[in-house]
Write a structure and sequence with these properties.
By secondary structure, this protein is mostly helical. It has four helices and four strands. A two-stranded antiparallel ribbon has the order 1-2. A two-stranded antiparallel ribbon has the order 3-4. The radius of gyration is 38 Å and the shape is flat.
Amino acid sequence: MGNLNLRALRLTPSFMKLYKDKKFSTEALAKAKLTFSNIFEELPIAIRNTALLDALLFELETSDDSVEVSTSHLTTYKSASSSSNKSVLTPSFDMLDLSLDPYIAKNLENLMDTIDEHHQEQGNYAYWQRSVERENKKKAAYLLNRVRLLFFFLNRARSRTPSII
């Protein structure tokens, strides 16, 4: 069996105060006496089994050799038909069978085709949007140029007319 090594850490209140104030200078860290080793504080962890899991484990330990025990879809054990060296929790690989119903396979193919078409239409729409934006920019530039020419000719005409005072 392997060893489980879990650690839970949280940021210390003094570090959170500095973080809230956005003071991460060397002086502020030194003033708060924060170093790399005391930014985090370790929290105790307690792991407990549920009552149902305890009952299952007890049942597996004390199960009769002539009784079939099914712990889940993936693990089955039948002591009468299996060899003596098999464990109670030996996995059953029957659930790993990946054969699909032809109806489901056809639906998945149709779904993938539809997704591909949708992706292509998204690209076409994005291209159309970019071309519309380009045309709108050309139109705005043309109108701006016309307005500038109009003002130019108006100012030129005003400068040529004699003023009556």
